[in-house]
TrEMBL record:
Keywords: Signal. The keyword Signal applies. This is DUF2490 domain-containing protein. Residues 1-19 form the signal peptide. It comes from Kriegella aquimaris. InterPro entries: DUF2490 (IPR019619).
Length: 228
């Protein structure tokens, strides 16, 4: 466990040092909640809320609310159809030319899971249809996302979590962004966990550093729905 923690600290340190070389100087923060609420053996409801800041806990950047209906094909494969509402303040210091927007987003998603030794892998494929309102005009955009996530249990309580996710635009310039993430997590209960980590968010013309604080709560609601 100690060796794994040292590797994690070194990785985060190297990410942070390299992150200071280019892009925005401020360390922002993302505060996140995710939930998978099982309502039957094959169906669950996805719930999600994210509050994002340009700086650590201040200077609002984005509010993201997302929900979806999951179909569990088996324990290692999940298909999802969902909707998201996103409010964005695109202005901050040297990025003052960016615009504010409100977005309605539809997404289709497929998750595959597998295990190699102690390592838990998750492949997430997502398509998004984005309907964006800039106030004086509207725009429709489409993009594809792929995320490879790796989770390593350290004990029954602590774990490490890493992922890399690439965003590809289906119009104009293909590359949209890339997110590289590393975190230390704790299993509070069987259905509740928390993570604290660092994300490097790379865009074509800028790099952003983000502290991430996330809570995952997956209550099993099957007993309630069976009574109804």
């Amino acid at each position: 466990m100690i060796r794994s923690l040292l590797v994690f600290i070194l990785l985060c340190s190297s990410f942070y040092i390299s992150a200071q070389e280019t892009g925005e100087n401020s360390l922002g923060s993302w505060h996140m909640y995710f939930g998978t609420n099982k309502v039957s053996d094959n169906w669950s409801i996805h719930t999600e809320a994210q509050l994002r800041y340009y700086e650590n806990g201040k200077n609002f950047n984005q509010l993201l609310l997302r929900t979806g209906l999951n179909y569990h094909i088996n324990s290692n494969a999940i298909a999802t159809l969902g909707y998201g509402h996103i409010t964005t303040d695109g202005t901050f210091e040297e990025f003052a030319d960016e615009e504010n927007s409100k977005e309605h987003r539809i997404f289709e998603q497929f998750i595959l899971k597998n295990k190699v030794g102690e390592f838990l892998f998750e492949h997430r494929y997502r398509l998004e249809q984005r309907f964006i309102d800039f106030g004086d005009r509207t725009d429709t955009q489409h993009r594809a996302r792929y995320r490879l996530q790796l989770t390593l249990p350290l004990t029954d309580i602590f774990f490490l979590n890493f992922y890399d996710e690439i965003f590809l635009n289906l119009q104009d310039d293909i590359f949209g962004q890339n997110r590289l993430y590393g975190a230390l997590g704790i299993n509070v209960t069987k259905n509740l966990s928390a993570q604290v980590g660092y994300m490097k968010n790379h865009f074509p013309n800028a790099n952003f550093d983000r502290l991430q604080i996330g809570v995952v709560y997956n209550p099993d609601l099957r007993a309630i729905f069976k009574k109804e």
